[in-house]
Design goal:
Helices cover 36% and strands 18% of the residues. Strands 1, 2, 3, 4, 5 and 6 form a 6-stranded antiparallel β-sheet that branches. The chain is elongated.
Length: 205
């Protein structure tokens, strides 16, 4: 029968559809269009992500500052650790100058002063780590010099540090002001947020 069909002029194969594949030129044009779109879109997305991370870090520092000042206004001493904003330990509580809390100061605590539960260091934004212990500079209340309580954030790169400084400080100097930054490893470093505090008497501790 196959022989008869061939003699009758029937085709050997079933005809394919009329669609054809893409040519190499068409594929290259499509790839060029995708590459152009990526070149325009990716920087915009990364820029917005960077801005969101910067806002998260700056906002967290401001929240902690407000909580610390509220804490001090109630207790009469500054916290020695950020975790004190969430829960005051049953014993062994000290101020940044190393002094023990009095019973009156201890009972004056009316926290928590932040909504985030803080028990140790924690991560915000792009892997930036907020340290739990607070540092005081100078280590004791000292008159006639600037006294600060410092919040330290680790893993912050120079670009993030610059952007945070622009929001919270704006002096363009990492060596002074509210925002300090030093390299720790490679392009990453420690960002320090300095909160001005009293330099005289127990009110500075």
């Amino acid at each position: 029968m196959l022989r008869l069909a061939r003699e009758a002029g029937a085709p050997d194969e079933v005809p394919r559809s009329g669609r054809r594949g893409f040519t190499l030129a068409e594929i290259l044009v499509a790839l060029m269009i995708l590459a152009t779109m990526a070149a325009v879109t990716i920087p915009v997305v990364l820029g917005r992500l960077r801005a969101a991370n910067t806002a998260a870090v700056a906002g967290e520092l401001q929240t902690l500052r407000d909580a610390i000042l509220n804490y001090q206004s109630r207790v009469g001493r500054y916290p020695n650790r950020l975790s004190y904003l969430t829960l005051l330990p049953a014993s062994g509580v000290t101020d940044p100058c190393g002094g023990a809390y009095t019973t009156t100061q201890y009972t004056a605590w009316r926290g928590p002063y932040v909504t985030r539960p803080i028990t140790t260091w924690y991560i915000i934004a792009d892997g930036d780590t907020v340290d739990n212990p607070l540092a005081r500079t100078p280590s004791t209340a000292t008159a006639n010099v600037n006294n600060y309580l410092q919040i330290n954030v680790y893993g912050v790169d120079s670009v993030m540090a610059r952007d945070v400084q622009a929001q919270l400080d704006g002096d363009g100097n990492f060596g002074q002001g509210a925002i300090l930054w030093v390299v720790v490893s490679g392009k990453y470093g420690k960002l320090t947020y300095q909160i001005p505090i009293a330099g005289v008497g127990s009110s500075g501790c």
